[in-house]
Write a structure and sequence with these properties.
613 residues; three-stranded parallel beta sheet; alpha/beta; 16-stranded mixed beta sheet
């Protein structure tokens, strides 16, 4: 990022950016969108972004600029996100460097020079100092007064006793444990300066950790290890300025596999390969017959398992920032129990996991992917992904006990009487009884979170069809964030409650917005709404909500359709215990609406009802 020139005057410096390779311009702070910076166009998103100083190239990779934006709370923020997404998709980087030209408007004057510093001779001569005989007399006085002399211990240590090295007298296995606590092999090798006893002692370590060494130094260190096999090998490569070749990484992995480690972890930083183009480097996995845990964090590499190669003891596989054909790899791992896949490169468009032994699966990717999971023994599932416009998700895990799913969608409509409702976020998590769900009877339940907005964007993905691919045994808590833009939301909520009839707690947040005339339906306040023409009788429907015990709604706007929705909830939930409603901060309801709500609450004295203004 180019520095901002400093000057004094009544002017202003403006950077005009022409994108090239995107390596110099800041994604958020540089004016690369038609002469404007994203932070100026979308200040609400800029506040939510996690990393605000990264370049355009870094943020466009795997859509990294979206990190932190999942905390959006309002319809305006979601609309800004969709606008920025569309703008980013049109960006095409080139091989030329970014061109940044500073334009100065107004007057400019250089800053004044700093005042000179002078010392007067009389001030230097008056500085106190001690030297010569005076310094010697001060030291003699300190010696006589006992200052500066070391304290005497209970007994004197003889010269023969001080020469005894009790640590070096310990057996080798104890010394190896001491060296293992040092951490890196380089630090352990430096203990050779202590005595001859310590020289070469690090070569017998069972747990080897190598940090910040070049590939040649790592090869030399591995060659000096005295053990034919190690328990754990952890390698973090320091990449030289000229980058790495694929052969360097291949030989390094082969040397690591030659030590038959039970636990192997290899990490190579990003942007480290000296290759032409943006394609990932393909490397073959080495033979790892004794390895039980394998962790690979090698940026820009796609690992391929050669035909016929088996991993008979592998139980844990972790992949970060690198790709692998999991559909071909997993059948060769008969004992695989834990699989972690994070930061998948953009070249990986499909993640297929079919395993009869897998018990825990963690996947986190910003790249739009098709994810297919079939694991009958899976007990824990953690998934965070971007479905985008064409991504898909299929989950078959009948034995799952703990689940956490976070998915962003850009085109999935609710199959209601109209196609105006869009689901932009889907979250499913497991909670224990109490805490988040105080009224739950079950010791463990599932919470579904949905963010839904009113949008006219075309979509072919249906919410009901997608939910059939993500089977959840019981949804006990339904959390809804709805950007209704003034439209009637009652039919939408009733539709979702019919899909999940076991909901015990309903939590609705109506997101605040500044509706436009063409997007909003102000007639909702007069008991009519164009978006409910096909379902005008929803207020008189009889809905069975036999499990519902608690309802909380925030952001009411004083519309009569909101009162009708509350009445329907009261009629259909015989076990209802608590209802709490809170008005939007910018709304002052009329006396008629407020009295109607109070009359509705008085009709059900057995329910604890509260209105927060």
């Amino acid at each position: 990022m180019a520095p901002v020139p400093s000057a004094i005057g009544d002017g202003k410096a403006t950077a005009l950016v022409t994108l090239g390779d995107g390596a110099k311009a800041s994604f958020w702070q540089s004016a690369w969108l038609d002469g404007l910076a994203p932070m100026d166009i979308f200040p609400d998103l800029f506040k939510l972004a996690w990393r605000k100083n990264r370049s355009v190239k870094e943020e466009l990779e795997n859509q990294s600029w979206t990190r932190g934006l999942w905390r959006m709370q309002s319809v305006n923020e979601m609309a800004s996100f969709v606008r920025l997404w569309d703008l980013v998709q049109t960006v095409v980087l080139s091989a030329e460097p970014d061109f940044i030209r500073w334009k100065w408007t107004g007057t400019w004057s250089p800053p004044p020079p700093p005042p000179p510093i002078t010392l007067r001779p009389d001030s230097v001569a008056s500085m106190p100092c001690s030297s010569g005989p005076e310094l010697g007399r001060d030291a003699e006085m300190d010696r006589r007064r006992g200052r500066g002399s070391p304290p005497r211990g209970p007994c004197a240590v003889t010269r023969s006793q001080s020469l005894v090295d009790r640590i070096s007298a310990l057996p080798d296995d104890v010394l190896h444990r001491i060296l293992a606590g040092v951490g890196c092999v380089r630090s352990a090798a430096r203990t050779s300066i202590l005595s001859r006893r310590w020289r070469g002692l690090w070569t017998g370590l069972e747990t080897v950790t190598i940090r910040d060494l070049a590939p040649d130094a790592i090869h030399a260190a591995l060659a000096r290890l005295a053990r034919p096999a190690v328990a754990a090998l952890d390698i973090h490569v320091s990449v030289p300025r000229q980058g790495l070749q694929a052969a360097d990484v291949d030989s390094l992995l082969a040397a690591a596999a030659g030590l038959s480690p039970v636990k192997l972890a290899v990490a190579i930083p990003a942007c480290s390969f000296d290759v032409d183009g943006d394609d990932d480097v393909s490397l073959s996995l080495a033979r790892l017959d004794a390895t039980e845990s394998l962790g690979l964090e090698v940026h820009g590499v796609f690992f391929v398992s050669p035909p016929g190669l088996e991993f008979p003891k592998l139980e844990t596989l972790s992949l970060s920032a690198c790709g692998m054909d999991l559909a071909a790899m997993i059948p060769r791992c008969p004992k695989l129990r834990v699989l972690r896949v994070t930061k998948q490169p953009s070249s990986v468009t499909k993640i297929e996991v079919h395993s009869a032994s897998l018990e825990e699966f963690v996947v986190s990717t910003l790249a739009q992917s098709a994810i297919d999971i079939a694991a009958p023994a899976l007990k824990k599932l953690t998934l965070a992904c971007n479905m985008g416009t064409d991504g898909s998700l299929s989950v078959v895990t009948p034995m799952v006990e703990e689940i956490s799913i976070k998915c962003w969608y850009f085109s999935m409509y609710v199959d209601l009487f109209s196609e105006l409702w869009r689901v932009v976020f889907l979250g499913i998590r497991t909670v224990e009884g109490g805490g988040d769900a105080p009224a739950l009877v079950l010791p463990r339940a599932h919470v579904m979170s949905l963010q839904i907005i009113m949008s006219t964007r075309f979509s072919e993905r249906r919410f009901a069809e997608e939910m059939e691919k993500i089977p959840v045994p019981v949804v006990s808590v339904l959390e809804l964030k709805i950007g209704s833009r003034g439209h009637v939301f009652g039919p939408l909520v009733l539709y979702l409650l019919q899909i999940y009839p076991a909901v015990q707690k309903l939590d609705i947040i109506l997101l605040e917005s500044r509706p436009k005339v063409e997007d909003s339906c102000f007639s909702c306040f007069r008991r009519r709404c164009l978006c409910e023409r096909s379902n005008r009788d929803w207020r008189d429907e009889t809905v069975s909500l036999i499990s519902l015990t608690e309802v909380e709604i925030k952001g009411l706007r004083g519309g009569y359709h909101e009162v009708d929705f509350l009445r329907l909830i009261f009629r259909g939930a015989p076990l209802l215990q608590r209802v709490a409603v809170k008005l939007c901060a910018a709304i002052i309801p009329g006396d008629d609406w407020y009295n109607t709500v109070l009359d509705t609450f008085e009709e059900y004295p057995g329910v604890n009802c509260t209105v927060y203004l």
